[in-house]
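Second attempt. The first submission of Histone deacetylase had a stray character pasted in from the spreadsheet, which I only caught after the job came back as garbage. Lesson logged: always re-copy from the clean sequence file. Corrected sequence (498 aa) follows.
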Amino acid sequence: MAFNNEIVQAWVAPDPSPLTTSVEYLSYKQLNAADKERVHQMEAEENGIERPQGYTVSFHYNPEVEQHHFGSKHPMKPWRLQLTKQLVFGYGLHYAMDLNESLPASMSELARFHDNDYLNFLRYIKSPADIQKRHREELNRYVFTDEFNDCPIFDGIWDYVTLCTGATLEAAHSLSSGQSDIAISWSGGLHHAKKRQASGFCYVNDIVLAIQHLLEKYVRVLYIDIDVHHGDGVEAAFFNTDRVMTLSYHKYGEFFPGTGGPDDTGPKGYTEPGAYFSLNVPLEDGIDDKDYEWLFRRITGRTIEVYKPQVIVLQCGADSLGGDRLGKFNLNIKAHGKCVEFVKAHNLPILVLGGGGYTPRNVARTWCHETALCVGATLHDELPSFIPYRQAFEGPSHGSGLLYPELNIKRLSHPKTYERRDLENCAARCEEQLRCVMHHPVVSMARYPQLGTVLRAKQEVDAEIREELEDRGIQDEVKRRKQERATGRRGEYRSIVH
Ligand SMILES: [Zn+2]
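This time the job returned cleanly.
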């Protein structure tokens, strides 16, 4: 648990209150390892944390991922993972789970979905401008020079992507091998990355890779995405198959990535594989706890009933919380967690992933709360006094040292731009689509004896992409993407920085 003062300074600098380090943390720091352990144990006892009965939860993480920086003004802060870890360990939740320090994913594991040339580029590119000059052609090819690209090249980028992916793949393996029933990877959930392109702060799509792994064992995988942004990368990767159903709840309209509208249901045409298996729930600004929960329970419940998945992948992007630096919703931590609770209640294996989330203290609170839900623990609201970086959670504007501060407060809330009728129409449309899913023959292993079918579908999509690029030339492709972005506001990061 390194105490990185520089990062703390960078974080608290905009706050007018003076930087303080709690007395409790300073005395905790003086303790020897055994006494520190006792402090965590006492905390766990106080919260009644014990290993769950009848099922196993595993936690997959490599702390080296925290040290990476996208740049000081970039909203993606890997430091949020360090805060999450401090809260999870601070409350003693690690006593209730199998802890795994995951290894980075290998090049060949990443190449199961991503293009080899693109991976080689990520592996060798460095951030200084003179090196980038030499790689101009590749930077253009992978659209990194696009003025709307939100994905900077930073030092250690390869380590970062392989660490994030390694944790998620290990978690997926833990489920498929029966070692755990709920596997958590908070550094994963990077749902926008494409086969040969970084997008929306995501370079490598750990979710697609994990689902590919799960498909070796399970016939039907349900992917649920509660990030404020559409899970476009995952949807696109499994567009042509009914072995993966994607369900994404997100803000839609003048918002990144601009996809995931009501008519985006998969390939058009009843007989095509995958038709109707992309389910999208586009939402307006300002949705609150009650409305979100109502919609989530109704649509997710019906989807599970109809599709009958054997495993669920749940992307828990925390940018759908109130007060998020980029998000537009008004959700509180417990309402976000209700989605995890609801999915868990179906007693299926679950891969729980992170995702977006740009107000680090609230990301940490949410993922700590959701870790507690996974192990069935109830945490006290007052944060443990001895945790490092406690000051990041203190003061009225940072949640007053509580785990569950109210986030839907006047100063932060987004005006509601929908009516109850809109939600009802949305639910009815989803149910209509699910009726079409129901009328498709239920996918069975007999129909797909091996993964080949899914991969064949993927190869067809790859061929289409290749043809499209050859037809138009790469520069035209860049231009097209730019035009698309004009409506979808792909460059939102830049718009909030300036
Ligand atoms: Zn997001």
